Amino acid sequence: MTKLRALRIGITIGLRSESESIWVNGIKQNALYLAKLFQHSPLGHSVMLVNTTTVALTDALPWDTKRFPARRFDDVKDALDVLIELGGQISDEQTRYLKARGTKLISYCCGPEYVQMIEAMIFRRVSGPVFINQQYDAIWVIPQVMETSAHFFSTLRRLPVREVPFVWDPMCLQASTRRLPFEGEYRPGGYANPRTGRRPKRLAVMEPNIDVLKFCLYPLLIAEQAFRIEGGDAIVHLHVTNADHLARHSPEFISIVKDLDIVRMGKASFVGRYDTPHFLSEHTDIVISHQWGLALNYFHFEVCWNGFAFIHNAHLCRELGYFYEGNDIETGVRQLLHAIRHHDNDWQGYRAKQRKAILRFLASNLGLISQYDELLADVCNP
């Protein structure tokens, strides 16, 4: 690795309110986890979050601002060696200012922007004019958006992209679950069926349902087929979050789900938005998930870290939970049935296995820290 010194690093965020929840989306969490990783570097980097909006920075921010200080762009623009543009975009004028003083500018791409952009175009979702910044020193792209968006980024920004490791940490999850029963961790619940000896399970589907990448329909079909096999003795209820608008206003969605047995028998509810930790703790035993082109997600780790059975098709973390390939619903059904019948036999061992598998993604992982220092060295000492 090229020799690298301690750096003054800024990571952008784009606050929309003074007390904005970190559960609104994953962007704020991403910035915090990346900041924690750089703070753990043996080189002793100085790291701060840089807000790119006009929202005031107050004590209402939902994280430890002493550990992860947040500053306005204008207050730190002369005090940075590197600015990583992650959760808020800087302007053309701000870019020129940083470049003139020698600050390195890195685009950290953690969203499927190609898909989001074409959906905005096709479905006329208003996002406003797009500023295509072509002055970056590096473009870093996390693995799950490489397939859909890497060439989109590189062509428009006129620079090759670099795939970088995904980073996560349980700190936000643990802060949210501190006062929950068992600190939000899974425990077998309910009374065992005297005929089968098994406890009936509460299923949950928690996809955002805002685009084609993470949608609830395939998980619904998995739950339906399992319900036809096991019935109400094994599946007490299915909650589908972020879906109340579909159940009320989408004729296509309504026409598909109204004839499902699990819906007809009153065993399914289509509800609004909930934060993950509380909903898992209060309403869930098993989570069913499906993604299409976004095969790593914080949600996957939050579910598995706390020991909940997780039925999913995310091939970039296939070692987690109960995996099925692609759109193979039959395998998904078999995995769900296995979890219903056997997950509680070794729920503690399962949780330990999940946490061991997630270690390679943690912000405190020494190998991961070293990889990011090498990435910084390539940018700062080309």
UniProtKB/TrEMBL annotation:
Domain of life of the organism encoding this protein: Bacteria
UniProt-listed Pfam families: DUF2827
InterPro entries: DUF2827
Protein name: DUF2827 domain-containing protein
Natural source organism: Paraburkholderia humisilvae
